[in-house]
Amino acid sequence: MHSSSKILTLIFFLQTLTLTLTAQTETNLHFYFHDIVSGSNPTAIRVAQPSLLSTSLTGFGDMVMMDDPLTSGPDPSSDLVGRAQGIYALASRDEVGHLLMAMNLVFVDQENNGSTISVLGRNSVYDEIREMPIVGGSGKFRMAQGYVHAKTYTLDQMTGDAVVEYNVTVFH
Description:
Elements lengths: L2 H20 L3 E10 L8 E5 L14 E9 L8 E11 L7 E10 L8 E9 L5 E9 L6 E11 L6 E10 L1
Antiparallel strand pairs: 1-3, 1-9, 2-3, 3-4, 4-5, 5-6, 6-7, 7-8, 8-9
């Protein structure tokens, strides 16, 4: 390939990359995730528990399916903005509170209705702020990438019920 062809190819590549990067929109979302594991109407239920769990201090292998409400405020009666649908699993044999999160944030609010954000990553629940990657999305958030910052708002040590504040930065 001649030098001029290489230069033209490089220029084309850089122009395409620039257009791709500048065409993305940054959206910031803020809501509360309500994980209710107790009572007669839980939003998260255990779907798998290994037989060795009784000897594990970390709950390693325990898996929970969730359909948790996402609300505009920490109160469960706040406006519903969506649902966190997916699964989380206790993923550490040696340390307590490390989850593998695989979930879709499914939005029902007027602005984002029908759109989703897909999250897949580690959630170390006892860290003050946890960061999880956004790996995709649909609708308004098609081809999404970004991150979620999660911070526990309340945790009932007796029931395991939790409210978690989510700050989401998504590029789409």
